[in-house]
Amino acid sequence: MLSLDEILSKSDGKVTLYKDLRILAEGYLTEKVTICIPDMHLLEKGPTDDFTDGIAAHEQRFLEFLDFLLELKASEKEALEIIQLGDLYDLWQARGNTNLIQNAYTNILGLLDELPAIYVVGNHDIDLLEWYKTRGETFGRKWRHFSFFEGNERVIYEHGFQADFANNQDSWSGIIGRNITTVVGMAEYLYPDIDIVLGDAWDDIKRIFNTVNAGLTPVKNPEGFNTHEYLEFYINLMGKYNRGDSDDHHGPSKLALAVVGHTHSARLVKKPQNGETFYLMDCGSWVNGGHEFGVICGKDLAICQWG
User: Minimal CB count within 10 Å: which of 8, 9, 195, 299?
Assistant: First the structure.
């Protein structure tokens, strides 16, 4: 298995640590090097497409990243795993069906399939799973994915909307959140930056609520690590798997790490609880020039950036 330092070296300076977000876990979590690509929100290109953000170089930057992954895959073969964490497409803002997006990004989607990437469904492309599941077709999407070490489930990968009150697509609050986002998406055709303006407003609201309920926003815990509003949700979820209480239990589980996207805010946190140590990796995003991704190499966890 490649080490994180070897990956950094092989990239000739293209892969760098993002805000020094790196943790050495207490035990091995994976048998493969795992690269986690967060939200991309591909559209049909144009003023509302946050992936390119109107800058052609952003698309080229991602293609260079994929070329690097293909080089790693050629040498590492099955020892390298690529996971796209959902919201590959932004179907909430799409003008038409997925064919329009696929035609706009044939190069990127072709290379992702060539790797091949494992696709986890996000709230913005959940329709690819929901609409066709009764017909036995899911476009290769999964609700969640797992990595194993010595026969045990050690890492769970989800998009992250499952822990989000405003975007959980199984709840009434998520349905309202989707409708609001769809309206905002339509408004972007008139004012492309409205999502950024409203996002800043929402951040201000969360800061106000933080004085009442620290669980809504990241705060510092006594150990100095940034906690995460989804941390308790995923500790509880991993606990269910470890006890065998999950509906889709696959066998022995010693889950210790949850990997998500969704928030577009990269963070890497840990929390000891009941004699165990749990980790949450939020991989950030590739929209609006973010270009962040997660890397797991055995015990080594990091958020990296390309370019």
Answer: 9
